[in-house]
Each structure stands twice: as structure tokens, then as C-alpha cells.
Amino acid sequence: MAGLKNLRKRRRVQVIVVAAVALMLSTAMIGYAMRDGINFFRAPSQVAEEPPAPNEVFRLGGLVEGGTLTRGRGETITFSVTDGGASIPVAYKGVLPDLFEEGQGMIGTGSYVNGVFEATEILAKHDETYMPKEVMDALKDQGVYKDPNASVPPS
């Protein structure tokens, strides 16, 4: 009878140890898988103040500055993104979204190399009233953007 109790205790301890190891292993695997999937958002003013490392992938958002959109030879497109406080030049190789134009909100994913944001992906607004939340917040912080849907207090 005493041997049976010891066997049950030993099994219980083994199950707890195996469960703890499995939990730690799954947590480590999830963390490893997500390390490249998290891209931090930055406004042009933040990039100008503290330029990130060239190997860091992040999202840059703001308004496409008027008069800066140029299509180079081949696929390279250059323009500047601003939040009212700073302007960052952007280079992108690829096809821009149909709704991409000057004066409109955009978010790009890429790296900041030698003073130019080299975008690997560009996202543009999808209708005339949409602006990405991060871009809107950054523009509000700079005092550039006023929400057209915000209610005006009665006078």
C-alpha cells in the first residue's frame, strides 16, 4: 500500500514538471515567432529626433508632403512624409496603392538607412474620411490635424 502512494506522488510530480516544461517551451516559441512580427510605429518627428538603427524595421506614418512625389526611372518612387513637425524622405520600389496621393495619410513599413526611409510596404487610406489611428494621433500631437467628425462645443 505504501508503494502505491509513493508511485502516485511521483507520477503527480512528473506530470507537474512536464506541464511546466511544456508551458515554458511554448512561451519561448511564441516569443521567438513574434519577434519579427512586431513593428513599432513612429511619426516623422520621432524619427528626426532619434533616428533608429539601420537594421530596425518599423512603421512610419504621416501625410504625403505635397510636391515631393516623384517617380524615378524603373520602379523607384520617392516622396516625403510629414507630421507638421518634421519631414522624412521615403524611397519605395514597387507599385503604390491606387488611392496613394499627395496630401493623404499613409503608413509605410521599412528601415531608416542613411537619412532615407526605405519602405518595403506602403499602405494608403481606403476612403476619403479614413486616416490610420497612429497617423491621426501623431498629427494631433503636432497640432496639424483637426478631426472633421469632432463635435464643436456650443457657444
Question: What would you note in describing this structure?
Answer:
Helix content is 32%, strand content 28%. The chain has helices at 2-34, 44-49, 133-142; strands at 41-42, 58-64, 70-71, 76-82, 87-93, 105-113, 116-124. It has a five-stranded mixed beta barrel with strand order 2-4-5-7-6. The longest helix has 33 residues, at 2-34. The N and C termini lie far apart (86 Å).
Question: How are the secondary structure elements laid out?
Answer:
Blueprint: H1 2-34, E1 41-42, H2 44-49, E2 58-64, E3 70-71, E4 76-82, E5 87-93, E6 105-113, E7 116-124, H3 133-142
Parallel strand pairs: 1-2, 5-7
Antiparallel strand pairs: 2-4, 2-6, 3-4, 4-5, 6-7
Tally of individual helices? 3
Along the chain, the helix and strand elements come as HEHEEEEEEH
Largest sheet: 5 strands, mixed, barrel
Counting helices, strands and paired strands, the structural category is alpha+beta
Shape: elongated
Number of strands: 7
Key terms for this structure?
alpha+beta, five-stranded mixed beta barrel, elongated, 155 residues
Summarize the structure.
The protein is built from three helices and seven strands, in the order H-E-H-E-E-E-E-E-E-H. The protein has 155 residues and is an alpha+beta fold.
